[in-house]
Amino acid sequence: MTDADLEAGRRLMAKLDAFAAFTDEPGRLTRLFLSDAHAKAARAFIGWCGEAGLEARIDAAGNVVARYEGKLAGAPALMIGSHIDTVRDAGRYDGNYGALAALAVVEHLAARRERLDHAIEIVAFGDEEGVRFKTTLTGSRALAGTYPEEALDQRDADGILMREALTAFGGDPDRAASLRARNVAAFVEAHIEQGPVLEAEGLPLGIVTAINGATRLEVGVGGVAGHAGTTPMNLRRDALTAAAEMALAVEARARGEADLVGTVGRFDVQPGAVNVIPGHVQFSIDLRSPDDARRVKAAADIEAGLSAVAAARKVGVRIERAHDANAYACDPGVVAGIARAVEAVGVPPRRLPSGAGHDTMAMGRLCPAGMLFVRCKDGISHNPLESITVEDCAMGLEALTLFARNFSAS
Ligand code: GLV
Ligand code: MN
Ligand code: MN
Hints:
By secondary structure, the protein is an alpha+beta fold. It has twelve helices and 16 strands. The protein has helices spanning about 5-20, 35-50, 95-110, 140-145, 160-170, 175, 195-200, 240-255, 290-315, 330-345, 360-365, 390-405, and strands at about 55-60, 65-70, 75-85, 120-125, 185-190, 205-210, 215-220, 225, 260-265, 265-270, 275, 280-290, 315-325, 330, 350-355, 370-375. The chain starts with a helix and ends with a helix. Glyoxylic acid binds near residues 128, 129, 356 and 357.
């Protein structure tokens, strides 16, 4: 790696640090889709694009997009990007690394007045985590032409309609479904690995072969709230103990099958008082697998298992399908191109699957798509302890730039 490459990595790290200041919660990084912090981050991104001579804008679905023309105006584009929304109490690299690295690729080319045979389009997707609204990947799904229009009618926990939040953000709900990107030859996303494989093997970079499919269920359990002192144990219909048994059933089903993972990540107990038997519990289930048929079967088994627990405990259960994304096998041509770039920066080309979901799985419906992984410390992600080194940051950027430069749209 040259000094200039390392310096570019330092600049990218500094931008990532500055970007982490855009948060909805003081003291920790939480930047939910269409929030004030997301709007401020989008404006900062647009400003940085402007410094590189790019005219960026917010599109109808709430993505920030910009185009760097090739030698000939109107040439097919290589699209590069990732997301800038985060989970609650997030690390600063998940998504943000890939969005700002995309910008850094263009900064590098623009600083040299270097035009390629293809255009580069950069995108900072807004909705990858699905924390605020249940249906997710709406930004990438809009560009892929698979926008889930019903998502606009979702409400967040405060009752705010996604349609209204999108309008306030500068998007256009009426046009989001017809946004489909045109003339995009391929999509590539750089992202931290969010797992421990690369670190364990002493490798700074990896090439993603496939992304696990995911199903998210939203479960409501209805019992009867009552006095904690006066209601005998055998006469209770406790929504929390029923929901706890359901969560254990999810864990047991996921444990029973290789590569299937199941998580109950959110649990809301009502009314939530020390002396009241819980009357209602709302919780989430997140199921992932590299095998779509197995994931679908597991979801069906879990739904049946939850209904059995509800019947035995005489509580009601309502299960909604909040999100379904099939596994995506990355495009072999893009995978090969990323592998060549990784080798060219001096790293053995380690191919690995992604357990986490990514915008790439939606973009793969539009065009050939693939991903570059960058090692992260201890494999930790969705956690403020998320960490990468400046050297790895720089090496990822170098490989991404090389991929963009060597890409051929034909
Ligand atoms: C996104 O981070 C996901 O995989 O849930
Ligand atoms: Mn991510
Ligand atoms: Mn994430």
